[in-house]
Amino acid sequence: MFSDDLGGIGFWSIPVFTAVIGWLINWSGLWMLFAPIHFHGVRVPGLARVAGALPRRVQEVPGILRGGVGWQGIVPARAAKMGSIAVDKAISRIGTPRDFYERLEPDAIAAHIVGSFREEVPLLVDEVMWREHPQLWANLPRAIRAGVIERVQAQLPEVVGRVTGEIGEHIDQLLDPKVMVIEHFERHPEVVVRIFRDFGARELRMMVVLGFVLGFLLGIPVAVLDHLLHRAWLLPVLGVAVGWVTNLLGMWLIFEPPEPRRIGPFRVQGLFARRQWEAADVYARHIAADVITLERIGAHLLDGPAGDRTRQVIADALHPAIDLALGPFAPAVRAAVGPRRFDAIRRTVALEAADRTLVPLRDADFSARQSVRIRTLVADRCRELPPRDFVEMMRAAIKEDEWLLYAHGAIMGAAGGFLHLWLFGVGG
What we know:
By secondary structure, this protein is mainly alpha-helical. It has helices spanning about 1-5, 10-35, 45-50, 55-60, 75, 80-95, 95-105, 105-115, 120-130, 135-140, 140-170, 170-175, 175-185, 190-200, 200-230, 235-255, 270-275, 275-290, 295-305, 305-325, 330-335, 340-355, 365-385, 385-400, 400-425, and strands spanning about 40-45, 70, 260-265, 265-270. The protein has two domains: about 1-35 and about 80-428, no CATH class; about 40-70, no CATH class. Helices cover about 80% and strands about 5% of the residues. Strand 3 and strand 4 form a beta hairpin. The two termini are about 15 Å apart. Keywords: Membrane, Transmembrane, Transmembrane helix.
């Protein structure tokens, strides 16, 4: 009698159900990871004020701390946190600010700045002199004014080389990759989603397939228990277990163990860690194209937390050039305008030039050409990381939120149990 039941539609409908539910759990779980990019839901008056007193797990649900009930993808909701982890777990180990700057070839940067900046020199000198001391500039013969501008242009390669050298000398104080990455991820959560999707594309697809396979395998003992015990509550309760375990095993198979282990004749290693070589290049491509680019480094140097310090470093490098530009007329000019006024003009020219000197670094085309070197650096260093550290780059940012995926699996598993009970009744 029991063997007849094992061959019946009611019996095998259970593993088929759990397989489909397992597939749906992991498919919808991936949607929960990445979508929507921005919070979708409703604001609840007063929720933001009391959210801090709620259990920590509840606070972790996207939107709760901001007073909303709804959903935002786990990855974009944690964009700033992921930026921090990306730096701590990977980028800080991949290279220092000096490594990134030197890989971008300061000599090539200097040549690009000279080429872009040379035409602005006459306008810059003329503009500052008319503003700071129009009478002096108007009284100077045209030939002397032209000579000053020609000297500045002639010195430009040497001056810019000095500027890029000074920036390189102080780059560890001027460039903070952690701030740069966190700010960029926070403003552009879609970048984080794109990195995660491409970085773990194969594993994410495998997760959905594993949901189906594990759901079917786990459904067989559930079917046996259902036919043995004939209890109405059994399928919904076991559905919770199957949903939870399906997600748990799927995550474990993808990420664990990070280092290869031998179990008898078999070599066991997490699916993601197995293809570190290939995934490193995918990660490097995104970091070089979206996160650590010459364009963004230039913007961070001028507009970041150390922007004033950067301007001062550039101004200090420019001061000698301003004296040389006046050539033999420097003492006469100093005497004519007074030492204090002369130093003020000198300082203003330097600071004006400092603001314009790094503008060419924001050239998107030049930045894209230089990004190849950053990509090579990141890919090489990622491949050298211990497998455990490499795996942590992807998993650490979502690890604290994995319980949301497991809870989602449990709820769907229970729903599948109730649906099967409604369609087939107790014991199939």
